Amino acid sequence: MTITDLFDLSFLHRRHHEALEFDGCTFTFGELDARANRMAHALLARGFESGDRLAIQLPNSLALIDLYLACTRTGVIFVPVNVLYKEREVSHILDDSTPRLFVTDATELQAEAERQPVTRPSITLDGDSPAGIIYTSGTTGTSKGAVLSHNNFIANATNLLTCWQITAADRLLLALPLFHIHGLGNGLHCWLASGCRMRLLERFDYQTAAAEFLDFRPTLFFGVPAIYVRMLEFPPEIASNMRLFVSGSAPLPPDILKQFRDRFGHTILERYGMTETFMNLSNPYAGERRPGSVGLPLPGVSARIVDDGGHESDTGELYLKGPNVFSGYWRREDATRAAFVDGWFRTGDLAARSPDGYYTLCGRRSDLIISGGFNIYPREIEEFLMEQPEVAEAAVAGVPDRVRGEVPAAWIVPSGASFDAGLLESRCRDALASFKVPRVFHEVPALPRNALGKVQKHLLPNK
Ligand code: AMP
């Protein structure tokens, strides 16, 4: 079985139902099915074969959905690229995944698709076939492509439908980017597997989002904490038809959960997932949604907490196993070997388990920064900063931010007498996605280092 078979519950059995609202237009499942078939033929006509990669850097759009579905129907591996990524970040992904084609504008492909037959191309695929390669983050060292199979996609979608009781009666308002596992795995997959109706927004614009809620009257919404912080200013009526608000990708502060409940009468359901695994842990739909906790393992998911000595413990690194867990990193056997211990995936997240089985995340093994749901590996920014002539040493770490949770800040040891922070910032802006640009540049005479020379980030001034 492939993800196409799962989606066919909607495409074949709900053909005449309205499926998607985007940019003022509405499409039925039958119409989307036909578009996807045509696009699949357009890829085949361009010489694509199963296992070829198609890299796509497009904002949320009908074309992105067409291309994604065409990939799943032809065995072409979907490689989404963050739309905020600049040349330096994009070239790493292209060099690594070696796609047959990189799409930043789908106009030509769409014109070709219109001339193609509407029938489904007959291609036999196994559930273990790779469906997507999703890049975790960064451009050097840590940026790896997680290879996710059709079976991984299916396991996640069916779990979420069951656990969050998503049905064709739902109305999903989706404002998360489809290039990220959150928008793709939770948003797009739950929509197509359940056959519900979705209004897709290009992004969450807090100036217009309240009006979208009032107009569409969704029952289901997926957000990151930065979105929920903004929503605290929305009128309570936005939740009038709502069944479930879900949060993830970054820690949801208990205080925000409480303020949200007071204002909208809904307890946001917090869950935990990652690119390599889709969703793993979730607060229960029916039971207690515990503030600050990411809940319990989803059905089929096994979780262990392991201490530094590799022994089972109540606090330590979280290890996972399950049908949702990826098979490895694209062409990175070394990284794949390091990521698994006896078949368990090492998440790199530190967690604690309560006596009644709820998990709470305590931090990260690495010093990953999560800003508004986007992952930032400090090393990538540090490396870029250290390429600048006026920088002798650089350290980057996350500092608290009310809206985005964390934002990156930089500590610079200048190579000369001083440095121009404005100039450094503008160079960062040219080379890096905007969410990675340090919000502040501190000048320091030296970086605090331990005996092994490793920078002790917790000792940085104003951290
Ligand atoms: P990504 O691969 O971009 O989805 O990022 C995955 C990382 O996001 C995880 O390893 C966690 O560190 C973090 N994360 C995801 N969900 C949560 C959550 N509910 N609370 C805290 N951190 C989270």
Key attributes of the depicted protein:
globular, 25 strands, nine-stranded mixed beta sheet, 13 helices, alpha/beta, 463 residues, five-stranded antiparallel beta sheet, binds adenosine monophosphate
Describe the structure.
The chain has 463 residues and is of the alpha/beta class. It contains 13 helices and 25 strands. Helix 6 crosses helix 7. Bound molecules: adenosine monophosphate. Adenosine monophosphate binds at residues 136, 181, 248-251, 270, 272-275, 294, 347, 349, 361, 364, 370, 375. Adenosine monophosphate (AMP) is lined by residues 136, 181, 248-251, 270, 272-275, 294, 347, 349, 361, 364, 370, 375.
Name the strands of the widest sheet in spatial order: 2-1-9-8-10-11-12-13-14
Largest sheet: 9 strands, mixed
Number of helices: 13
CA-CA gap between termini: 50 Å
Task: Indicate the percent of residues in helices.
Answer: 25-40%
Given helix and strand content, the structural type is alpha/beta
- Low-confidence runs of at least 5 consecutive residues: none
Strand content: 25-35%
The molecules bound to the chains, other than polymers, are: adenosine monophosphate
The dominant shape is globular
